[in-house]
């Protein structure tokens, strides 16, 4: 069975979050090359699809989570239907 485009996008988004969690600090160019997509696609991933994850660039242009972002704590703040739970 052929892989659907949304499968590839989901894999890419999860991979990017995983890299940032491991403090790998990829660049937009390196991600585009790794996933064989355009830089524009990676920019869309970061600045639109992952906009709620507070991703920024360090002084060298590498992608990082802004100080204080805890991916595991953030996941726990979402309800069962994907709605944000207010504490």
From TrEMBL:
Entry-linked Pfam families: HTH_11
UniProt xrefs under InterPro entries: HTH_11 (IPR013196), WH-like_DNA-bd_sf (IPR036388), WH_DNA-bd_sf (IPR036390)
Domain of life of the source: Bacteria
Gene3D superfamilies hit by this protein: Winged helix-like DNA-binding domain superfamily/Winged helix DNA-binding domain
Positions of the Helix-turn-helix type domain: 12-46
Protein name, UniProt field: Helix-turn-helix type 11 domain-containing protein
Source organism per UniProt: Sulfurimonas denitrificans (strain ATCC 33889 / DSM 1251) (Thiomicrospira denitrificans (strain ATCC 33889 / DSM 1251))
Lineage, top ranks: Bacteria, Pseudomonadati, Campylobacterota, Epsilonproteobacteria, Campylobacterales
């Amino acid at each position: 069975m052929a892989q659907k485009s949304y499968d590839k996008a989901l894999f890419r988004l999860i991979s990017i979050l995983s890299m940032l969690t491991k403090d790998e600090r990829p660049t937009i160019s390196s991600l585009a090359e790794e996933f064989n997509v355009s830089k524009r696609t990676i920019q869309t991933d970061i600045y639109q699809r992952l906009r709620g994850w507070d991703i920024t660039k360090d002084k060298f242009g590498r992608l990082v989570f802004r100080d204080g972002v805890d991916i595991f704590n953030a996941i726990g703040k979402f309800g069962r239907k994907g709605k944000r739970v207010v504490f």
